[in-house]
Specification:
Blueprint lengths: L12 E5 L2 E5 L5 E4 L1 H7 L7 E2 L2 H7 L12 E2 H8 L9 H7 L4 H4 L6 H15 L6 H13 L5 H7 L15 H4 L25 H12 L7 H10 L13 E7 L5 H16 L3 E5 L2 H10 L7 H7 E3 L9 H13 L6 H15 L14 H5 L1 H7 L18 H11 L2 E5 H14 L12 E4 L5 H8 L2 E4 H12 L11 H11 L4 H10 L8 H7 L2 H6 L16 H16 L12 E5 L5 H34 L6 H31 L14 E8 L10 E8 L3 H9 L4 E6 L14 H13 L9 E5 L5 H4 E6 L7 H15 L3 E4 L3 H17 L4 E3 L7 H10 L4 E4 L1 H4 L11 E4 L9 H9 L5 H18 L9 E5 L18 E4 L1 H22 L1
Parallel strand pairs: 4-5, 6-15, 6-16, 7-9, 7-10, 8-9, 10-15, 17-22, 17-23, 18-20, 18-21, 19-20, 21-22
Antiparallel strand pairs: 1-2, 2-3, 11-14, 12-13, 13-14
Helix pairs in contact: 3-6, 6-8, 7-8, 7-16, 10-11, 10-12, 11-12, 20-21, 24-28, 27-28, 28-29, 33-34, 33-39
Protein name: DNA helicase C2
Family: Belongs to the helicase family. DinG subfamily.
Keywords: ATP-binding, Helicase, Hydrolase, Nucleotide-binding
Length: about 1000
């Protein structure tokens, strides 16, 4: 085996530690240095070895490193050596992944970094004789030419000398970047028959669960009982539109994932069908997938039986990848950071399990290393897929996952995708060209989020960005540098064979000019009186007085003026709120007329779109004599795309605008079906002063469409969560158990189905009285950022890290982070934060899980569904009571859906959120932890959110910190004795 190549020029190494830096100098001396010392010496050193170069630059208060990075970033070498494998971006995380002695990782110093580099280069050298070595060697040569700091060492490890290049008969460097030429192709198979309807008995489900767990597994009676009741969702349906719905609340630690997988896997195998398991976030999808290793230990078998599905925008688009590679190669041979990033993506694409760029096996820190723009540029961007017209269609990773899902036993999806798929199936009717055959069995995990997910999935938004995006989808880039493909380009291969498409297509493109033209946001902002009075400069692109040139811009202007007129103060540039909203009614005449004009313009667009769809549909029948299978699929995809991306949206907008023609009736006691309102907010990428504005329509009760399009057509639906019910929210004289179940059924949509749901509840097996403590801090001012930051610092010091800080507002999270990151890191307690550290949530949780004394600040996504068992999480601190946001949606729902008790409605939402937050703390029987609420105004009626046995005590900060330290120190002492 070849020797491991040397590192470049005795490279120094930098590792942040305890508020200072551990430094291995070029002379091999291990020192502790300040950031100022490093900044002074760094220009005189060769490229240092670091972990996560952009993060290191931020810590040193240096500008972001250029691309290619001049530093030797171990994460880049890791991505090259072990593609499609995630790792926490820390010394401990890398060390554990590479098998370094764990004793060296407890207090790592900078001299660990060269050892990590040698370990990676050694693995690279071991791959020299593998089948993938020629591609890897060609990429290493190309990356060296592009200025990759690891290029020389990587080439040497792969047997390539400083002046060598890959031999003539081997794959060449530029060809190695073209990963789309090497990916497997899918092949069409015959349509599958409908699944059978044979049931799964509770005893069968229990037996499968025992087989999954294996001999010697911990006995969990609640898990066994949960599995038995979950099997009820797989009974044969007896009446159309009346599924078997099971509501099963399973406390934390019950083991509900394997509990429902047991009957689901039996039903799928027995009936030749697919069970869709849906959860709330991509991170939770990954957690469920990891649990299924116990059912399918062999990775190849698991890929056959289990598929993870996400929205198209998450996946690598091979056509966009090809365009990006061609652009990067056209820029020359050297110094192009894009080539390095694309080479690593090419390696990853050949190894990835699913092609997900943003939540799969591409590490979450990759975007920070090479720029999120690189990934956005190669992703399957919204509405741009040309399906069968794409030269890479049969290698497409999205299409691979769609086809695998058709034959899988279990599909792990998220609520947003599942609901949108169900809505499209309802829209398309019996169309056999659907991307996915309609599932008959669903498991809705994290079921307390069903109503929230349905609210997003079935809402309607007529905003500037949405309308401009539709114009871009129809007309293309309109002279900009964007690679957006318009409808003509999508249909150009069909126009050759079906010329009668030309006339309606031309009419569509002409009518699309009624949608917002490029620069619309700046024109709207420039017309606002607040800008004129304050002389706020807004670039319109012409230097002339802005004018609104089409009906959409006139409507947006009228909506914007109503928000500005009816909100308190000026929302422009306000530091406290990034968005403003107001009621649609009463509606001024200017808005009424603008809505009428917009509705007419949209109907002029909808008519030729319908004609286009009709003529495409007609071609499938009249041109059957010459249409081959690929062309038929191409036409079917075009029909589906136009319906979903354009026609359904335009029809929805027309309906919403049409309902505005009559003034809203103001009758007491009337329950509306929809909530219509106007909102103005700032979106990512918009300039100061420019805000998107739109008309929004939400269902008053979003579980109505959920029940209609997903639950009712299904045969069985299991809705499960640790927090389905607010079981102790009633008064002592109420029948609180029934009230809690009734509220749970309302949130899950069960009340809209013919038959009542099966109800079941299974308690957590944990001894919360022994394993946990809970405090409300009584002497911290909730509106004082300094006091709040001081409280978090004190609590995190008391727990010695291992903490999760939760916030109800991103602005407060960022302010607390800014104030406490330095003192915590000086104490050896690294701090990370959602919305601050540019990494996805899964990576941040991985860091928290792997670093015993790290702490993490987060918002809602960290409150729900994060699983960090063991000592890595021993404190959860919540900044304030998570009351529902007092916006228009909540106002209307608390009026009409609270049963005349709006206060109880608010309390129930807050209690359920507190239960979710507390649930992050204790994840196993060995865990011990403390929950702290930093809100002295917390009413006692909310304390029933905590598990039975937990006594919530109100203490001052210093007294609570002392008790936290004593409680957790006792835990540490016990662990040391056991060790």
């Amino acid at each position: 085996m070849p020797d491991t190549p040397p590192l470049p020029d005795s490279a120094p190494a930098l590792l942040p530690r305890n508020g200072a830096w551990s430094v291995l100098t070029p002379d091999g001396e291990l020192l502790v240095m300040t950031a100022a010392d490093i900044k002074r010496e760094l220009p005189h050193w060769s490229a240092p070895i670091v972990i996560h170069a952009p993060a290191m630059a931020r810590r040193l208060d240096l500008p972001p490193p250029p691309r290619p990075s001049p530093w030797l970033d171990l994460l880049e070498l890791f991505a090259f050596t072990l593609p499609a494998r995630s790792v926490p971006p820390t010394a401990r995380g890398l060390g554990l992944a590479l098998g370094i002695d764990e004793r060296r990782l407890d207090t790592p110093e900078a001299d660990l970094l060269p050892d990590l580099a040698f370990a990676l280069l050694h693995r690279l050298a071991q791959s020299r004789n593998t089948p993938e070595a020629p591609v890897r060697t060609a990429l290493a040569w190309r990356m060296r030419q592009a200025g990759w700091p690891w290029g020389a060492a990587a080439c040497a490890a792969l047997g390539l000398g400083p002046r060598d290049r890959p031999p003539a008969g081997a794959i060449q460097p530029n060809d190695a970047l073209k990963v789309w030429t090497r990916l497997p192709k899918w092949e069409e198979t015959a349509p599958l028959p409908a699944p059978g309807a044979y049931p799964v008995t509770g005893e069968e489900a229990r037996a499968r669960l025992r087989a999954i767990l294996g001999e010697g597994a911990e006995q969990r009676p609640a898990q066994d009982a949960f599995t038995h009741i979950a099997a009820s969702a797989f009974a044969p349906r007896t009446t159309q539109g009346d599924p078997h719905m099971v509501l099963a609340e399973a406390g934390t630690g019950t083991g509900k994932t394997l509990g429902y997988v047991a009957p689901a896997s039996i039903w799928a195998q027995r009936n030749g069908g697919t069970v869709w398991v849906s959860t709330y976030t991509r991170h939770l999808q990954r957690q469920i997938e990891s649990e299924l290793i116990r059912l399918y230990p062999d990775p190849a078998e698991r890929m056959t039986h289990v598929v993870v599905r996400k929205g198209r925008e998450n996946y690598l688009c091979l056509l966009n990848m090809e365009e990006s590679v061609n652009i990067a190669l056209s820029r020359g041979q050297a110094g192009d950071g894009a080539v390095i990033g694309l080479a690593l993506v090419a390696l990853w694409a050949a190894h990835t399990l699913d092609g997900d760029l943003f939540g799969g096996d591409l590490p979450g820190w990759f975007a920070d290393l090479f720029g999120r723009g690189l990934l956005v540029g190669i992703a399957d961007r919204r509405g741009e897929c040309i399906h069968g017209a794409c030269p890479h269609y049969q290698s497409c990773m999205v299409e691979h996952s769609i086809r695998r899902a058709r034959t899988a036993d279990l599909v792990i999806a998220n609520h947003a995708l599942v609901m949108s798929q169900a809505a499209w199936h309802a829209l398309d009717g019996s169309d056999t060209s659907n991307e996915d055959h309609t599932p008959t069995r669903y498991i809705m995990d994290e079921g307390h989020h069903v109503a929230d997910a349905a609210d997003s999935a079935f809402a309607l938004e007529l905003s500037g960005l949405e309308a401009a995006e539709l114009r871009r989808w129809l007309l293309g880039a309109e002279g900009t540098r964007s690679r957006a493909r318009g409808l003509r380009r999508r249909l150009e291969d069909l126009l050759v064979h079906i010329p009668r498409l030309e006339t309606p297509l031309d009419t569509v493109l002409l009518a699309a000019r009624a949608l917002p033209a490029p620069g619309w946001s700046a024109r709207l902002a420039a017309l606002d009186p607040v800008h004129r009075a304050a002389a706020v400069p807004v670039e319109t692109g012409t230097g002339e007085e802005p004018t609104l040139s089409n009906p959409t811009e006139m409507l947006l202007h009228a909506l914007r003026q109503q928000v500005l007129a009816r909100t308190q103060g000026s929302p422009e540039g306000g530091p406290r709120r990034s968005d403003s909203e107001c009621d649609l009614y009463p509606m001024p005449d200017t808005l009424h007329m603008a809505a009428q004009a917009m509705e007419r313009a949209l109907r002029r667009l909808a008519e030729p779109l319908r004609t286009l769809v009709a003529r495409l549909d007609e071609a499938l029948e009249t041109e059957a004599d010459w249409l081959d299978t690929p062309m038929r699929e191409r036409i079917a995809a075009a029909i589906r795309s136009i319906r979903r991306r354009a026609l359904a949206r335009v029809d929805g907008w027309c309906a919403m605008l049409g309902s505005m023609q009559a003034e809203k009736p103001q009758q007491d006691g009337e329950t509306p079906q929809y909530i219509d309102y106007i909102r103005m907010d700032r979106r990512e990428g918009q300039n100061p002063g420019e805000r998107d504005v739109g008309l929004y329509r939400h269902w008053l009760d979003p579980t109505i469409p959920f029940a209609s399009v997903l639950a009712a057509p299904a045969h069985g639906v299991l809705v499960t969560s640790a927090t389905l019910r607010d079981e102790t929210g009633g008064d002592v004289h109420d029948d609180s158990a029934d009230r809690a179940w009734d509220a749970a059924e309302a949130r899950a949509g069960a009340i809209h189905l013919p038959s009542p749901a099966i109800r079941a509840s299974f308690p957590s097996p944990f001894d919360y009285a022994h394993q946990s403590r809970a405090f409300i801090i009584t002497d911290v001012a909730h509106d004082d950022p300094a006091a709040l930051a001081g409280a978090y610092r004190t609590l995190f010091m008391a727990s010695n890290g291992g903490a999760l800080g939760l916030f109800t507002a991103i602005s407060r999270l960022k302010e607390v982070y800014r104030r406490i990151v330095t003192p915590l890191e000086a104490a050896g307690l690294p701090l990370y934060a959602q919305h601050v550290d540019p990494m996805d949530n899964a990576t941040l949780v991985d860091i928290l899980r792997s670093e015993r004394n790290a702490s993490l600040l987060g918002t809602d996504a960290m409150r729900d569904g994060v699983d960090v068992p063991g000592e890595a999480l021993r404190l959860v601190a919540f900044e304030r009571v998570p009351w529902p946001r007092p916006d228009i949606l909540h106002r209307e729902r608390r009026i009409h859906l609270s049963g005349g008790e709006p206060g109880r409605y608010d309390d129930r939402i807050a209690r359920l959120r507190l239960r979710q937050a507390f649930g992050r703390l204790i994840r196993s029987r060995q865990d011990r932890g403390v929950f702290v609420l930093l809100d002295r105004r917390t009413p006692s009626r909310l304390l029933s959110a905590f598990p039975a046995g937990v006594t919530v005590r109100r203490l001052g900060l210093s007294a609570a910190a002392a008790e936290i330290k004593a409680f957790l120190h006792a835990q540490d002492s016990t662990a040391d004795q056991l060790h």
